[in-house]
Design brief:
Blueprint lengths: L8 E5 L5 H11 L6 H9 L4 E6 L2 E11 L9 E9 L8 H16 L3 E7 L2 H9 L3 E6 L11 E7 L27
Parallel strand pairs: 4-5
Antiparallel strand pairs: 1-2, 2-3, 3-4, 5-7, 6-7
Protein name: GCN5-related N-acetyltransferase
Keywords: Acyltransferase, Transferase
Organism: Cavenderia fasciculata (Slime mold)
Length: about 180
């Protein structure tokens, strides 16, 4: 019988008081480093960042930005800029809870799709596929200073209400202007 860890997991908001913890988490888990400008931008748009706490310890986080529609009149999409869970806390439902936050954010705002770049890494790819993400394309030499340099663009379609499509430009979202800044 599987143990239910959900009662130990809480999602919290990003604040100026805990952003240092997020920096440390991302540095510990992710192969890409982010500068202070990146963290200032996500702090300016905290509605698309969530921190995951396990017994009050920060163990995971997701940071997203809103991308504009490809064509006028289409809904916006949500792009996952960073997504991480400390290795010791994986397979406890933390990643699932963070993805549920992302999908709920999409549903509330009528974003039609969630996208992210995933380094060629079978564990990460399997995780996203488990939650119905698909590989849209392979991008060779996406990363400059990490191996492997290739990545996959993965996506998940989110049902939207066509009568409530959000077509606001990304100028209202400071984090949206961080396009591909994670390439180092």
């Amino acid at each position: 019988m599987a143990i239910d860890y959900s009662s130990f997991i809480e999602l919290g908001d990003l604040t100026d008081k805990n952003i240092g913890q997020l920096k440390l988490l991302n540095t510990s888990v992710l192969p890409v480093s982010y500068d202070d400008k990146f963290y200032q931008k996500i702090l300016a748009a905290p509605f698309i960042t969530k921190l995951a706490f396990y017994n009050d310890v920060l163990v995971g986080a997701v940071s997203c930005r809103v991308d504009p529609p490809v064509n006028a009149g289409e809904p916006q999409t949500l792009y996952i800029m960073t997504f991480c869970v400390l290795a010791a806390y994986r397979k406890l439902g933390i990643g699932k809870k963070l993805l549920e936050f992302v999908e709920t954010t999409c549903a509330k705002n009528n974003y039609c799709k969630v996208t992210l770049h995933v380094q060629v890494n079978s564990d990460a790819i399997d995780f996203y596929k488990k939650y119905d993400f698909t590989i849209e394309s392979t991008i060779q030499n996406y990363y400059r200073n990490i191996e492997p340099t290739d990545c996959y663009l993965m996506a998940k379609l989110i049902p939207v209400d066509p009568s409530a499509v959000t077509t606001t430009t990304t100028a209202t979202n400071p984090a949206a202007n961080n396009n591909n800044k994670n390439k180092k």
